[in-house]
Amino acid sequence: MKIKQVPADFYVREELDLAPKKTGDYVYFILKKTDWSNLDAINKIASFLNAKSTRFNIAGMKDKKAVTEQYVSAFKVRKEELE
Asked: Is the whole-model pTM more than 0.85?
């Protein structure tokens, strides 16, 4: 018997307690993805925003074959651009 057959069989949700700030060079957002690698997802977002992927950081790698929610920081990217 296989335990993990489809991405929805494995769900990862990252928890993080961030103190809200009104100013700064970083914006944080939750990236929810299914069956995507972290690098592919960040590269796609960066491409859409015409930004370098190096402006985005993720704390740790999550399983590609899963449904994951994790925090991403973006350097000098406006919140409105991400929305």
From this structure: no
